[in-house]
Amino acid sequence: MQPTYTGIASAPASPDVAVVVDVMRAFTVAAWAFRRGAEKIVFTGTQEEALDLKARHPGWLAFQDGAPVPGFDLANSPVQLRSLDVRGRTVVQKTTAGTAGALAVADARLLLCASFVVAGATAEVLRRVGPDAVTFVVTGDGGRAEEDLACAQYIAARAASAEADPAPYLDRARHSDGAARLAEAVRLGWAGVHPGDAAMCLEADTFPFAMAAAREDGHLVLRPVGATDGG
Known about the structure:
By secondary structure, the chain is an alpha/beta fold. 33% of the residues lie in helices and 22% in strands. The model has no long low-confidence stretch (mean pLDDT 96). It has one domain (2-223): Alpha-Beta Complex (putative 2-phosphosulfolactate phosphatase), CATH 3.90.1560.
């Protein structure tokens, strides 16, 4: 498996296999939503589209990044997600990095979305599918986010060897600009950020499922998949 690492802007429109990585915090939130029982997550390109879908589907929830926005139920905090009942619910998610990255490669034959908490399961899917090449989309900081690149490289290493140690990759993420920005947001008391968010984003291989996105009824929809599922 030959890995290629790219940002959103330079990602190919329809790679064979793509893994879109957003550690802090979109796909950590998505993974925890599935862990807490969410049925599916619908990605949107704009906040307006997200709120329109929520309005047209009573019972759906809407998540976004940045400061809290009226009409949305969560501002991308995995800790604050614990206060929501997502069991059996559909979540609409719009973020500037993670969901944007997924939408950029929506025509991939196999599209996985990942963070550290699902890294091991994501690697298992790649190992099972056995692609010749994988495009890893590093979504943060224009493709330069160290936490996303570290996670992508850990997944690639874990796909090559189940014995790959997550510790050095987590350490890189822990000292990344993304982690520093989260810490600063906490220090400044920004709404939508919790002091425990970074720690939840820096746990490796927490869940036994990966997350695969595919088009359904005109939308890109994310669902949990087992390590023995996939392409």
